[in-house]
From TrEMBL:
Ranges for domain Schlafen AlbA-2: 21-137
UniProt-listed Pfam families: HATPase_c_4, SLFN_AlbA_2
Recorded superkingdom: Bacteria
Protein name as annotated: Putative transcriptional regulator
Organism for this UniProt entry: Desulfurivibrio alkaliphilus (strain DSM 19089 / UNIQEM U267 / AHT2)
Coiled coil: none
């Protein structure tokens, strides 16, 4: 931790007019049980007060707030034969990542105890949760109105709000984040002064105020607008997009192109999609008078699938980021984390994202659909190109979408034909229509004279229960997905 920041933090806390529910000053009081109870109270009150952390400072006079110094040494302090910090950690439930820091303040030695705000449940000491009321530390259970309020305030950890770079100067923020691209993407004129720039970045949660007139860059700010992700810590740098292109149909073939992205997702998205589309093989189709080169995969489908992989990944999965692999006959897009929606329902159900702030800002900037997941557009493009149906596949801790290149109906597998039938039924339902034998023939490019081929596929899909007759009393009314 930066000691200059800790000195600024101490001075900012001392400047408070009095002790606060989340802030307490001590001289040399080192009663272990008392510290444990206050850890519980500070964590719970920090959440109630909307703070990220609570603090206890030794070496500060609690009346004048002057630095008086302390001889408390948390590193050497013991309870019985056990190190104090280990003793304390074992008695706080749920586990809290508190930290003690000894600071050589210009006016004397100060010890800071920083306690993160409660997240999933009230924090207890020896299985009892505490709060602070004035200078007292009573049990939370004795104040049911405060307990109810705390439960309402508790929220799960939100990755986007975490800090990627702490205590950064204004110049560092402007150097680390592509703020010009941010204003271009939100379609707002670039302010003519730094205060205006920081005001917008802060309003969108890309930065937050730190002590000493410094700034914190949030995970959201870094992952979207970093000029280089590798200028942040390794866990964030590993979230960069990786692109690999193979000269063949499997990973044993020669790698012709490899790109390890280094920009934030929003800052580099347009360039990434353009680069991918430039690498995609093209097929020549002969029109009435001209040869027309068409990409193997629809460009709109590529854009939507890449955006979905970035937005809906599980950011807490360490050592992994989105990966795009292009083969001779398909494209595989993989992102960390199992999906929050069943794979077979991704087309029709509204998306559920772990990264709501990221998804909201990406939608605002036009990278993905405002309503829905955009996957219905992907399916529509696939059908327009009469491609094999995309495959949505869940892994143990990942999600993968496979987009296939052109293949004749005769070359599609039975499973692909049935999957295409289901996706076609979903698309028709979303359009307020119903799938019929004729529409399925059109989707596959089957000559109406051979409509029996579509009938075989429909019969198989009915047997598997993934589609059903729309109206049992009128079998010719068409078909809908099995869950409709």
């Amino acid at each position: 931790m930066n000691e200059k920041r800790d000195i600024d933090l101490i001075d900012e806390l001392r400047a408070q007019p009095a002790e606060l529910p989340w802030l307490e000053f001590k001289k040399n009081n080192v009663d272990p049980d008392g510290i444990g109870k206050r850890c519980s109270a500070l964590s719970n009150l920090a959440r109630l007060e909307g703070r990220d952390c609570g603090f206890m400072l030794w070496g500060i006079d609690d009346t004048s707030h002057e630095v008086v110094g302390t001889n408390f040494d948390p590193a050497s302090f013991r309870v019985g034969n056990q190190e104090f910090q280990l003793w304390l950690a074992q008695r706080l439930q749920p586990s809290v990542a508190f930290s003690f820091r000894t600071v050589a303040h210009p006016d004397g030695r100060v010890v800071i105890l920083e306690v993160p705000a409660a997240t999933s449940a009230p924090v207890g000491f020896n299985n009892i949760a505490y709060i602070r009321i004035g200078s007292a530390t009573p049990k939370l259970a004795d104040y049911p109105e405060r307990y109810i309020k705390l439960i309402k305030c508790l929220r799960p950890y939100t990755w986007e709000h975490g800090i990627a770079r702490r205590y950064a100067s204004g110049d560092e923020v402007l150097d680390l984040l592509d703020y010009a691209q941010y204003f271009r993407l939100i379609r707002h004129p670039l302010p003519d002064n730094r205060a205006g720039i920081f005001e917008h970045l802060e309003a969108d949660g890309l930065i937050s105020r730190d002590v000493g007139e410094k700034w914190n860059i949030t995970h959201l700010g870094a992952i979207l607008f970093a000029t280089r992700l590798d200028r942040f810590d390794a866990s964030l740098a590993r979230k960069a997009v990786r692109l690999v292109v193979y000269d063949g149909k499997n990973r044993a073939e020669t790698v012709t192109h490899r790109l390890d992205g280094h920009k934030g997702y929003a800052a580099g998205f347009e360039g990434l999609v353009d680069y991918i589309n430039g690498l995609i093989p093209r097929n020549e189709h002969i029109g009435i008078a001209l040869r027309v080169a068409q990409p193997l995969f629809p460009e709109l489908a590529v854009r939507e699938l890449v955006a979905n992989a970035l937005i809906h990944q599980d950011m807490t999965v360490t050592g992994a980021g989105p990966q795009i692999e292009i083969f001779e006959d398909r494209m595989e897009i993989t992102n960390p984390g199992r999906p929050l929606v069943q794979a077979e329902r991704m087309i029709d159900l509204p998306p559920r994202s772990r990264n709501e702030a990221l998804a909201s800002l990406m939608r605002r900037m036009g990278f993905c659909e405002e309503q829905g997941s955009g996957l219905d557009k992907v399916i529509a493009q696939v059908e327009l190109y009469q491609l094999p149906p995309p495959l949505f596949r869940e892994g143990a801790n990942s999600m993968q979408v496979i987009l296939y290149g052109p293949r004749k109906f005769a070359d599609m597998t039975p499973d692909e034909r049935v999957r295409a039938c289901y996706q076609h039924a979903v698309l028709k339902l979303l359009s307020g229509e119903r799938m019929k034998n004729a529409t399925l023939c059109e989707r596959f490019g089957i000559d109406p004279k051979n409509a029996s081929q579509a009938s075989v596929i429909i019969r198989k899909a009915l047997e598997e229960g993934i589609i059903k007759v729309a109206d049992a009393d009128h079998p010719r009314a068409g078909y809908v997905p099995g869950w409709a």
